[in-house]
Design goal:
By secondary structure, this protein is α+β, with helices and mostly antiparallel strands. It has two domains: about 1-165, no CATH class; about 180-320. The chain has helices spanning about 1-10, 60-75, 90-115, 115-135, 140-150, 180-235, 240-255, 265-275, 280-285, 290-310, 315-330, and strands spanning about 10-20, 25, 50, 75-80, 85-90, 160-165. The strands form two sheets. It has a four-stranded antiparallel beta sheet, sandwiched between helices. Strand 4 (about 75-80) and strand 5 (about 85-90) form a beta hairpin. Helix 1 crosses helix 6 (about 180-235) and helix 8 runs antiparallel to helix 10. The radius of gyration is 28 Å and the shape is extended. The two termini are about 20 Å apart.
């Protein structure tokens, strides 16, 4: 199992992307609206976070954040309950390039926001003044609280950070910084913790690889089902080039995401590429038998992908580990 983890770490990296920007929100307290804290029942009233700015003020920043997270989710596998996202090596260059583009857009949007910050603040306080007069008995107090919630320095509130790292099993623990009296007890406890953590990581690695295989197979089935629905609902016999192109792109991405070497599923997709994607959408629309073949082929692929997704993947995981070890021994 340790060898399997070694192979996995060579097949890809863990990636985390963190996007930070000032959200323009403030958590109100009872005192902010002129009420005593003990007069507000948590069971009945929740003041919660209120917007200091209208959504459109931070809309561009929010859009870039959403695109960054969507990019990661679409091209990685969640690793060990969210510890990180596993990015196969074949996708590394493309994804990091796209993240750099998004980061450039982010800092451009940040500069645009900062350039108009004073106007945003002034307009927001005016809007809150009007709203506060209708909401609370002491509007001046609420408006003062809102105005004070706008930060003077914005730099620390913004960040676009991409972190790449690899997982490693904990090993020994150094005793250099532990006093002699503490050494035996502390080192023993830490060694036990490291061994337990290592055992869990190794044990979860096989499960992780199997889940990645199942996820790609499930995505294959879902795509086929969505294509069939699109063909059924569409006009002009429902076969559109963008629908066929979607499958072509998926097959290419599958090959890049298929770090575990799922030969059977990849072969199924390549067969579909040869048999179903050699015609254009226009050629399908003019050929009823070809349309039936397309629908039958997509339906068969969806069924096979579902079947494989539910199958026991232990043999494939074992083959992945053995193939990886052979490959790296040859490279060495």
């Amino acid at each position: 199992m340790n060898d399997l983890l070694d192979v996995l770490t060579r097949e890809g990296v863990l990636i985390n992307v963190t996007v930070r920007y000032w959200r323009g929100c403030k958590k109100l307290r009872p005192e902010d609206i002129g009420l005593k804290a003990d007069a507000v029942s948590d069971r009945l009233i929740s003041l919660g976070h209120k917007r200091l700015l209208p959504r459109e003020a931070t809309a561009e920043l929010a859009l870039i954040e959403g695109r960054a997270h969507s990019l990661i989710e679409a091209n990685t596998f969640p690793f060990l309950n969210g510890l990180g996202h596993f990015l196969p090596n074949a996708r590394l260059a493309d994804i990091t390039d796209k993240l750099r583009e998004l980061e450039t857009e982010f800092w451009r949007a940040k500069e645009e926001f900062v350039a108009h910050y004073a106007r945003h603040r002034r307009s927001a306080v005016e809007e809150w003044q009007t709203a506060a007069e209708k909401l609370v008995p002491n509007p001046a107090r609420l408006v003062a609280t809102i105005a004070a919630a706008f930060p003077l320095a914005l730099e620390k509130h913004f960040g676009f950070d991409t972190t790449l790292f690899q997982i490693a099993v904990p090993e020994g623990i150094s005793a250099d910084l532990i006093t002699l009296a503490e050494q035996r007890q502390v080192v023993t406890a830490r060694q036990q913790a490291a061994q337990a953590a290592g055992a869990k990581i190794r044990g979860d690695t096989e499960k992780f690889v199997a889940e990645c295989v199942a996820s790609l197979r499930e995505q294959t089935a879902t795509l086929c089902e969505e294509m069939l629905q699109s063909i059924s609902d569409g006009k002009t016999d429902g076969v559109h080039q963008k629908t066929l192109n979607r499958l072509t792109r998926f097959i290419d991405q599958f090959k890049q995401m298929n770090f575990a070497n799922d030969v059977e599923m990849e072969a199924q997709l390549e067969r579909v590429r040869r048999e179903l994607l050699s015609r254009t959408a226009a050629e399908y629309r003019d050929n009823k038998p070809a349309q039936r073949s397309l629908r039958d082929g997509l339906s068969a692929l969806a069924g096979k992908a579902r079947e494989l997704a539910q199958a026991d993947a232990r043999e494939l995981v074992q083959q992945f580990g053995e193939l990886g070890r052979r490959r790296f021994h040859l490279a060495a």
